Amino acid sequence: MSRVRTLEDYHTDYRHSVEDPDAFWAACAEEFTWHKKWDSVRGGEFSPAGASTWFAGAELNITENCLDRHLAQRGNKLAIIFEPNDPRTRHLRLTYRELHTQVCQMANVLKKNGVRKGDRVVLYLPMIPQLAIAVLACARVGAVHGVVFAGFSAHAIADRVNDAQAEFIITADALERGAKQIPVKSVVDEALALCPSVRRVLVVEHTGWPVDMREGRDAWLHDELVGVEKTCPAEPMAAEDPLFILYTSGSTGKPKGVVHSQAGYMVWADYTFRNVFQVEENDVYWCTADIGWVTGHTYGLYGPLLAGGTTLLFEGVPTFPSAGRFWEVIDKHHVTIFYTAPTAIRSLMATPIDNVLSYSLSSLRVLGSVGEPINEEAWHWYHQHVGKGRCPIVDTWWQTETGGIMISALAGITPSVPARAGLPLPGVQPVLLAQDGSEIEGNDQEGYLAIKGSWPGVIRTTWGDHERCQQTYFTPYPGYYFTGDGARRDENGLYRIIGRVDDVINVSGHRFGTAEIENAINQSEYVIESAVVGYPHDVKGQGIYAYVICAGGVPTTDIDVQRAEASIIEAVVAEIGRIAKPDKIQLVSGLPKTRSGKIMRRILRKVAEGETQALGDTTTLLDPLVVDEIVAGRK
Ligand code: WT7
């Protein structure tokens, strides 16, 4: 039932999932350990007052399903393989039994430190086993984990900690990234100056980097672990209790805390993981995404562990010590399923081909892609040089809000065509909507991508602001979940994702709101106003192009230009982090605005894309001349 093995199965299951979703998902859910079974399978479907519920009335703990459930059969099987940043550092392997013990011990440390069911715990950690263990330990005691990617700045941490009203943080001394060590605890310290709610900070000793420990607030994890029990009962959670918060950018300035709950997310993570990747018992599976993003949550951690699989965690980067590092790791650990992002593929494509050809890669069986549309060139390179022409590629479309993969090939079963995500998974009913909200029927059509009907992994709320969740996803087209993407259904009914239709930029598979970056830029003392747009970037997919008006007009000397630009970049790094640094900055005397004061982003986008010939009608602008200046000064 819960495993599709042939194309015929796919069609049968798809039909069943749409005609009788309750029966379909109940059958999938039967495989898990429950403290109490559900009263109803689906409820509250996209209603204006509330979100969906799944398996309401049930009680469970997801960690029993990730760990305890496997101990009898798979106690000595590897759960986690950890490959450190530096290949000269020894890798680490944890069996299910060892992982179970370590999660229980960490859970006991959390309890000892006052963490209770429902408390929010923010994790700001490198990609090391302790991050996975901490996530699971939170879930074990019923605390809500909020992982913040360890590339975000102190301000970004503070915003998230305050929004979540978190009282506990787990962090590390520093992280290793390529040849560098980057301090982590000191960033947390800076953030905590702005976070009155935080009572306790647990610190993992990872690199030995010196840190300040604040008396009464900070404790070393290794000290706390001394003598704690090796078992810890799993807290029974209601199906709809929150499991985690993960912040993501939208079209307003403030990131929102996407909330996923226990039972639906669990069933969805497991179902999508096993079916999309067609996982078998002896697979070694590697998802390169950091656990700080949803891909790392669902397919680096929960999905593989729910399935009793072996998942590889990698602390490093694709280019250190050489651009063959990914391929070296695949050969070293006999990785069979590899899941990465188009931006990583494109950056490696740009290096000498020997970097990949000198590895055998013979263990590989299935390849995956996620984060943005994979362009045909990258698809073919991935297929030919990594998969040696024999591994199906799954181009998986989904979002932080969908909890798991929505549209994708099932490896080797449903069609995998370059630049197409493909067919929807069972349980997913994609539609294309016209501007007026009507459904566009038939193939070879384009529209706004929306999802009809609920699925187990759908976003439940945005933390602390349910109204925002309703407004963003369920109000634009009543009865549908609105994705914010545009899509095309090709002549064969396969979906091709075109990209965002809102003010969101996708940089290297990570989402940033233009308003969010503008807010950051405007923190610079040099800046009066700014407008940010995305433009096509060879490696990142989209780059960030910022038009900025400086106080005192456009600087005239090189040194003043440099100062202004440095200050703008510094502001973005401080407010969001290095990952949101503008690629291009153009200092301008004005922005193209309508008479009502609205910035005409369409024009700015065209200029950034280099399409300066076809700017369309500019006569309605307050000051049409500013467009000539912008075109002339294009970066
Ligand atoms: C947005 C979601 C969920 C995975 C990581 C990103 C874009 C994601 C694909 C794909 C085309 C894709 C969409 C989506 N996107 N995967 N396979 N093909 N576009 O998660 O940060 O929540 O971003 O990423 O635009 O809306 P996210």
Structural account:
An eight-stranded mixed sheet has the order 12-11-8-6-7-14-15-24, sandwiched between helices. It has a seven-stranded mixed sheet with strand order 5-4-17-16-18-19-20, with helices on both faces. Strands 22-21-23-25-26 form a five-stranded antiparallel sheet. It is built from 19 helices and 31 strands. Among the domains are: 1-61 and 260-502, ANL, N-terminal domain (Rossmann fold), CATH 3.40.50.12780; 508-632, GMP Synthetase, Chain A, domain 3 (2-Layer Sandwich), CATH 3.30.300.30. The longest helix has 18 residues, at 558-575. It has 635 residues and is of the alpha/beta class. Helix content is 32%, strand content 24%.
Residues in helices, as a percent range = 25-40%
Low-confidence residue ranges: none
Helix/strand-derived category reads alpha/beta
CATH topology of the domain at 1-61 and 260-502: Rossmann fold
Cα-to-Cα separation, first versus last residue: 55 Å
Main sheet? 8 strands, mixed
Trace the largest sheet across and list its strands: 12-11-8-6-7-14-15-24
Radius of gyration based on Cα positions: 24 Å
| Ligand species | 5'-O-[(S)-butoxy(hydroxy)phosphoryl]adenosine
Average of per-residue pLDDT values: 96
CATH architectural label of the domain at 1-61 and 260-502: 3-Layer(aba) Sandwich
Principal-axes shape call: globular
Report the CATH C-level class of the domain at 1-61 and 260-502. Alpha Beta
For CATH, the homologous superfamily of the domain at 1-61 and 260-502 is named as: ANL, N-terminal domain
- Number of DSSP strands? 31
Q: In percent terms, what proportion of residues is strand?
A: 15-25%
Tell me the number of helical segments per DSSP (H or I, 4 or more residues long). Answer: 19
